[in-house]
UniProtKB/TrEMBL annotation:
Keywords: Membrane, Transmembrane, Transmembrane helix
Pfam families associated with the record: DUF2938
Species name: Ramlibacter cellulosilyticus
Protein name stated in the entry: DUF2938 domain-containing protein
Membrane-spanning parts: 12-29, 70-90, 102-123, 143-163
Classification via InterPro entries: DUF2938
Length: 165
């Protein structure tokens, strides 16, 4: 495999695997009775984006979009790959060969900016969930989820490095 294709493959795998780690975390929370995001709502938002509508008073009350759950999951995983690409762009392609925890956690934590400052406001929840009944609880949940994603970036990179040796 040529070096560019190998680096691209490693980056895509990194994003997919880290997102899967986050999903396992969300599944655990769900099993413990802690509410998590319905990815159909992300798909609904993305579906409306394609129609030119960015912001909603409440995405839950917006008109449903055909295939919104699948669209939400695809968006979720593509976003994970994009965030992994940011990590690799900042740390260099060597990160997937010799990963370290701190940069992965830092990028994971930084990704919480996306829901706080883009998605939540656009979906009607306000900046950093300020319009929700329990904003601080929701902020901490988002921060925890994205910290787990950062841990997933490290674990995925370590797994990729181990397998490729």
């Amino acid at each position: 495999m040529n070096p560019i294709a190998e680096d691209l493959t490693r980056t895509v795998l990194l994003g997919l695997m880290a997102t899967a780690v986050m999903d396992l975390w969300l599944l655990l929370l769900e099993r413990l009775g802690i509410p998590t995001l319905d990815f159909a709502l992300i798909g609904r938002w993305v579906g409306h984006l394609a129609r030119g509508r960015i912001a909603h008073a409440s995405i839950a009350r917006a008109e449903p979009v055909a295939g919104e759950r699948a669209l939400g999951w695809i968006t979720h995983y593509l976003t994970g790959v994009a965030f992994a690409a940011v990590l690799v762009a900042v740390q260099g392609t060597g990160f997937t060969r010799d990963p370290s925890l701190l940069p992965a956690l830092a990028v994971g934590i930084a990704t919480v900016a996306a829901p706080w400052f883009v998605m939540q406001p656009a979906m009607g929840a306000g900046i950093a969930a300020s319009r929700t009944p329990t904003p601080w609880k929701n902020r901490l949940r988002s921060l925890a989820n994205h910290t787990v994603f950062g841990g997933g970036l490290y674990l995925a990179a370590a797994g990729i490095a181990w397998i490729s040796r």
